[in-house]
Design brief:
single chain, 318 residues, alpha/beta, 2 domains, 4-stranded parallel β-sheet, 12 helices, 8 strands, 44% helix, binds iron/sulfur cluster
Amino acid sequence: MDKIPLGVSKCLLGEPVRFDGGHKRNRYLTDVLSEYVEFRPVCPEVAIGLGIPRKTIRLIVTDGQDRIRGVENPDLDVTDALVKEAELAAQAMPDICGYVFMQNSPSCAVFGLKRYGTNGYSIDSQGRGAYAKRFMELMPLIPVEEAGRLTDAGLRENFITRIFALHDWRKQLQHNPTPKKLIEFYSRYKYQVMAHHVPSYFAIGKFLANLSAKPIEEINQQFIHMLMTALGHKASRKGNTNAMMHLRGYLKSHINKLEKEELGHLIETYGKGQVPIIVPLTLLKHHLMKLDNPYLKNQTFWSPHPDALGLRNFVLEH
Ligand code: SF4
């Protein structure tokens, strides 16, 4: 398998680029995910010349605007430099399929960054790092996550599902889309989308029903935004149960009463949060594969990411 290009905050790979000369090595990234991805590391603060070690900066709301400024030296304002760095990085890696940012950083944080007033008091935790913010504006298609949140099984699976889906689309469809290829591509994702977000399942189906309305390139771009938005919704236990029940419908006349009960019981047990999805999914797949139906066989729902990552061995909270 060719490796998936992934942007990453450089300190997460164990590089000593933090303000204090340390790093924040994330073992999940370096020891597990590295098998499947090719990292594109960036430390925006070093890239703009702040040096290592460096004085602390933080998000200080100034005249109503989020600015990244020095704590000891408030005259230092690096916001514009970080924004420019994000623009350069977005230009340099248009092919990435995701980005893992370091949390709590005035440059890299995506969620819940502390914002301070000019008086030094904390205002709220509603900020976003200046580099991450601009990067995300420029590349809205790219799934992003913070390293700290990857410890949550549901968020981790959702992020990795999206980077594999985007990579799949880049390989199969990005450059030479045709109506046939687009339909074939999406037909593999149907049950996965159903598990993630039923309204998107209907919306994408309707959208793809008329492929002659616009140039195929335009439809393709709109399609991938719709698909990534759909997959951005976490596949909940309810969503996965719904997709499995629909797939079970194909078995109606192919399995006996006892097998039906056994399968139904396992899906139900999963829905109650008593076993991980891998339990009913394995049995469902076992039965369905015997039908030798290419449409069913090729569903990404079976393995949206490599089984070796073990992302489906956890009981989801919801
Ligand atoms: S969080 Fe971002 S800016 Fe800070 S050290 Fe890591 S890569 Fe550099």
